[in-house]
Design goal:
The protein is mainly β and 428 residues long. The chain has one domain: Single-stranded right-handed beta-helix, Pectin lyase-like (Pectate Lyase C-like). It has 2 helices and 35 strands. The chain has helices at 3-6, 51-62, and strands at residues 9-10, 25-26, 33-36, 69-72, 80-81, 85-88, 95-99, 102-104, 117-122, 125-130, 134-136, 160-165, 168-173, 176-178, 185-188, 191-196, 199-201, 212-215, 218-223, 226-228, 234-236, 241-246, 249-250, 256-261, 270-281, 287-292, 300-314, 318-324, 334-340, 345-350, 358-371, 375-380, 388-399, 407-411, 416-423. The protein has a 21-stranded mixed β-sheet that branches. The chain has a 14-stranded mixed β-sheet with strand order 1-6-9-12-15-18-21-24-26-28-32-34-29-30, with helices on one face. Strand 29 and strand 30 (345-350) form a beta hairpin. The longest helix has 12 residues, at 51-62. It is elongated. Keywords: Cell wall, Cell wall biogenesis/degradation, Disulfide bond, Glycoprotein, Glycosidase, Hydrolase, Repeat, Secreted, Signal. Belongs to the glycosyl hydrolase 28 family.
Amino acid sequence: MAPRLRGCLLLLAMASTWLAAADVADAGGGGRAVFNVTDFGAVADGETDNSRAFLRAWTKACATPGRPTVFVPGAGDGSYLLHPVVFRGPCRSFMELHVAGVLRAPPGLAAFRGCREWVHFSSVDGLLVTGGGTFDGRGSTAWPLNDCPKKRDCKLLPTQSINLGRVRNATITGVTSLDSKFFHITVAGSHGVRIHRVTIHAPRDSPNTDGVHIQGSTDVRVTDSAVATGDDCVSVGPGASDVEVSGVTCGPGHGISVGSLGRYPGEEDVRRLRVANCTIAGTSNGVRIKTWRGGSHPTAVSGLVFEDIVMSNVRNPIIIDQEYCPYASCRHESLTVWVAGDGEVGVSVQEQRPSAVRISDVAFRNIRGVSATQVAVKLWCSEASPCRGLELRDIDLRFVKRGVATQSQCAHVAGGVVGGTLVPPSCI
């Protein structure tokens, strides 16, 4: 196969394809057209690249009216090897990808030259991905190539497992994402996305394997899902607004995070996020806002609510970190003074100028459970733009070691509202 064809196979389902003849198989459900990938040459032997067969099935379905389905049957112990594919719209009607079998990514990164995603949906309006199947990213073959956890100026692995790009009115439900090479599910430039009852799993030491990453998108819901991974269970990036995360079980991982923000110029604001009714267990953070030091673009974060959340043996259950930098090379240069809830004063090392990201109107309500760190509430804001309008209400976080009280720490917090039970005592 030519090198270009070994890269992303790009499907152009434009208006001209609507005139193509469709091979219609009646599913017995009101005449709905079902396109079985095995009828287009797909083989579940774990060795044959099935990307062409999948794209042929999508092309036929995309040109068919009446809510067609691309069907990937189960195959016992077999699996479908799938090289990077782009399922592109617009299509003639609502599309369904029904995955009952196991899709497996190629090992390593050789097949991903020129590609940023494994399974990419682009410019589709009306999409359902379901079926009880598994997207196996085979991340263990690529994680050793990822030096980003150790090196600041690294090259990100271009291998998100499932990507929704410029998609509208889409639902992913009832599927499993396993061992992604990089992010599991990414929602970018999209609107009206529902991720419901999905299972996401990767080892706790797998690098940059965020469960669901959302950026540049509006009206996104992540609900009733289980995420166990090596990075953020859910991460909300620049340009995200009107996002809800509820009923999510998170852990292991790095918690549920906004950010990181402030590293790159021109980042858009994050507004109106609600995280509720979640359980977070055994993670390195609970609910977190993280922004890089430095930067000149004043990105704003506002209208965030974290409520009704249970923490179980979580480090940093509540944290705003505007000095975020995971690399040892960052920890130099200047100092930040902080004040704890009991009046204790401390000093931390800070690199570069303070973060330019503005944080305001953030509420933490009814958050309870066990903290694995004595500092259970850390509100570490920017000297250049102190946090405003913070709320702590009904917080009950006990230290894992009985008899030792938890603490809160604040830096550059310009007032706020507190109420109800407050364990640890508020530092606002």
